[in-house]
């Protein structure tokens, strides 16, 4: 079990969704540091300086969307081992297939409501930061 402090990068253009995700992470553990990027280019800039333990990334964003950012992260030798969980309101087979074909570690459909979002975030963090050995 990982006992050190972890960092999670949120790549989310919607401020309300980002605030809800940050609050859910804080409720899970106040020891987890969060980084926020508002789109793919911003995420890649931050990843050139800092290395989070987990990336939670929206698919639909302006400028560089999550699909393109995922492809760039998983093509970079320095970054490809970081688990990336793609999040979307889309259940499109095309989106799901694309993300897994480009080595997303998981794909989740964003739930509606804070309680369900908190449960989703808790499940993701529990698996990637406590259960999975990295």
How does this model look, in words?
- This is Response regulator.
- Residues 7-125 form the Response regulatory domain.
- The modification 4-aspartylphosphate is found at residue 58.
- Pfam families: Response_reg.
- InterPro entries: CheY-like_superfamily, Sig_transdc_resp-reg_receiver, TCS_response_regulator.
- With 134 residues, the protein is α/β, with parallel strands linked by helices.
- It has a single domain, classed as Rossmann fold (3-Layer(aba) Sandwich).
- It contains five helices and five strands, in the order E-H-E-H-E-H-E-H-E-H.
- The chain has a five-stranded parallel sheet with strand order 2-1-3-4-5, sandwiched between helices.
- Helix 1 packs across helix 5 (114-131) and helix 2 (40-47) packs parallel to helix 3 (66-74).
- It starts with 6 loop residues before the first strand and ends with a helix.
């Amino acid at each position: 079990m990982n006992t050190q402090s972890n960092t999670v990068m949120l790549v989310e253009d919607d401020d309300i969704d980002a605030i809800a995700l940050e609050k859910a992470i804080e409720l899970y553990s106040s020891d987890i540091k969060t980084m926020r990027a508002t789109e793919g280019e911003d995420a890649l800039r931050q990843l050139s300086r800092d290395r989070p333990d987990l990336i939670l990334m929206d698919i639909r964003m302006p400028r560089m969307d999550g699909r393109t950012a995922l492809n760039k992260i998983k093509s970079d030798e320095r970054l490809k081992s970081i688990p990336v969980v793609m999040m979307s309101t889309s259940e499109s087979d095309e989106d799901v297939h694309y993300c897994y074909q480009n080595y997303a570690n998981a794909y989740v459909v964003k739930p509606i409501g804070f309680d369900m979002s908190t449960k989703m975030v808790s499940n993701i963090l529990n698996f990637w930061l406590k259960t999975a050995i990295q």
